[in-house]
Design a protein that fits this description.
DNA-binding, six-stranded parallel β-sheet, alpha/beta, homodimer, six-stranded mixed β-sheet
Chain lengths: 341, 341
DNA sequence: CCACGTTGCTAATGCGTATTAACGCCGTAA
DNA sequence: TTACGGCGTTAATACGCATTAGCAACGTGG
């Protein structure tokens, strides 16, 4: 029972046992080198003292001597634990935590990063990024300048989600949006749709651009017509789409799809008999709908997991691919049907 | 631009600037003592180098020297990011993160704690708890031995959820289950219920015992009959309750309530006309029901927030109450009605 | 009795930082 | 000229541990 307030140290154990601090350290680490040996009785005496005091090595000092933290940093531009329930990021974190646990690392959440201009910034006066051995970056859009700086400074990191080069290749684990989107386009074409629409930005964050790219390429290859409409107002958008003879709507944002489907039903258009819908990924905002949308699922948990895996290999110096694209799982759903004549 | 893999140190900055490591440290910490001063130009040169390299003090070394690193540890006996479920713990974490951000601390999730006998243990070989300045403990049940040891070792911590003394008072921010439960009992009594049941363990974790305590006391005070039944099988339990003439069922676990209500309807008993239900808190397991349960809400987010607040005050040495009970918000709901004649 | 290996341990050092005591310098007062 | 009090900076040290080099004592073979 430690009487004082101070932590018990190896030095204390050493004094109690009449040996040196070195000996205590050796006993503690169960070193069995031929180089350094401890007599069984001495070892036993030390162990007794350790048991009696309940001594535990101070991890801080241990890491200092080791050069490593075994912390993995997690940086998100949004709060890690979002208050709003949509909770798009949650599955990523599940995967991250699972893998971190497996490789025996703790997670350091950079919750203290200050918010400037409505966004958290990586670099600021009291940059704490280096606190971790390496870190995982999460967010729909990462500032290219900050990425470039990370690369330039050689800070080990991995992005969850594909990123364009930023003064060099960015290590990432992303979702293969182009392939997944193209597959849906082919499916629609196979069901007789000849004019289909992409509703959304189709640019900006890589994840949007990637979907759009897959869409455009597949439309061309299938020899059908693809139109692109930015989402503004449900009624407006629906007007445009119907005017152009669109029979299948591919939505970048699940929530927009829900709103548009509602608009369709308001116009007495049945989904999918009169109008088909394809959702290009999971909801990033809360969306309420009774429809079982056709589309695909982003392998979020797996992405988180593999991001840690890649980071770990970077830290170990183990070579390996630092850019991975994971396939999205198609969801059959009930909103894509044969095109109306 | 640091070419090597090594972390930039104060020594590096010092060499770059032609000053001593001490000077760098002083500049960094913005010490303004009369005792130790740095010329403005020198300070500026050092700051430039710091900015250029993106240097950040190694928290490990800092902590070793300083006994402080602005991490708050978060220890949960379950995974922090639960894979499935309705996520009972999530709101706590939201509160924890919000407060941590406000006081400028990062969160260290102890994901590396090994699982022994199906539970994570705080103390083990490579105890990393002290990496954090202090920590928040989260979980339905915390091992009293481990709590006692934390207290004995003087490790600063705060529990989310009330805990019994463990070789000393445990700092906590809990929910006032006794009062909240008692209020519901009074409400039921006021509606004419004379025989009501507590379904659940009523013991074990403090949160269960507290509910039971409130129930028992309020029942006695209201002069009505209270029966206690452990949940086993829905049909069995319902048999027992009806046999004893129970007209209102208080469930410790929301999910058990959902199952029992279903059983009631199977028997053509209408809720709440024929049988009333009160849920003593939010679902800890996913439960599907259409019923809007009467009961109360656990102030989870607020508990998380205040736990960090208390921890912070402990660390600052600022006195203050280290045991807080927060009121639960009553939920009117639609499952408690006038007792059937 | 010396050379030499083995055994059991310790002194010394480094990890990166914060802190304290002290040092050289310059200007001013004596 | 000497004494002296700011001023700006640094050398030295501590923090708790792991590690390396090395030391003393004790055989054992020649």
């Amino acid at each position: 029972m430690p009487s004082s307030n101070r932590r018990v140290t190896q030095q204390d154990i050493a004094r109690m046992t009449g040996v040196s601090q070195t000996t205590v350290s050796i006993v503690l680490n169960e070193r069995d080198d031929a180089a350094v040996r401890i007599a069984p009785e001495t070892r036993e005496r030390v162990l007794q003292a350790i048991r009696k005091t309940g001594y535990v090595a101070d991890p801080i000092a241990r890491r200092l001597a080791d050069q490593r933290n075994r912390f993995l940093g997690v940086f998100t531009y949004e709060p890690v634990f979002p208050a709003g329930l949509g909770d798009f990021y949650h599955p990523f974190l599940v995967g991250i935590e699972e893998c971190a646990e497996r490789i025996g690392c703790d997670l350091l959440l950079f919750t203290s990063a200050p918010v400037v201009d409505g966004r958290r910034r990586i670099f600021h006066q009291d940059n704490r990024l280096r606190l971790a051995d390496g870190c995982i970056l999460l967010g729909r859009w990462l500032d290219p300048d900050e990425l470039a700086r990370l690369i330039a400074e050689g800070q080990p990191f991995v992005s969850v989600g594909r990123r364009d080069d930023a003064g060099g290749p960015v290590p990432y684990v992303g979702a293969d949006y182009p392939s997944a989107t193209a597959a849906q386009v082919r499916a629609a074409a196979g069901l007789g749709h000849t004019t289909i629409a992409y509703v959304g930005e189709g640019a900006g964050p890589e994840s949007h651009a990637d979907r759009m790219r897959g869409f455009t390429a597949a439309v061309a290859q299938a020899g059908i017509t693809g139109v692109h409409v930015r989402f503004t107002d449900a009624a407006d958008v629906m007007d445009q789409l119907l005017e152009r003879g669109v029979t299948a709507i591919f939505v970048e944002e699940f929530a927009d799809g829900a709103v548009l489907a509602e608009e369709a039903e308001r116009r007495a258009l049945h989904v999918p008999r009169d109008l088909s819908f394809v959702a290009l990924g999971d909801p990033t905002r809360p969306a309420s709908t009774d429809l079982d949308f056709t589309g695909y699922r982003i392998p979020r948990r797996e992405m988180g997991w593999q991001a840690v895996e890649v980071l770990s290999s970077i830290l170990d110096g183990t070579g390996g691919d630092t850019q991975r694209l994971l396939p999205c799982e198609p969801v059959a759903g009930a909103t894509l049907a044969v095109a109306r004549a």
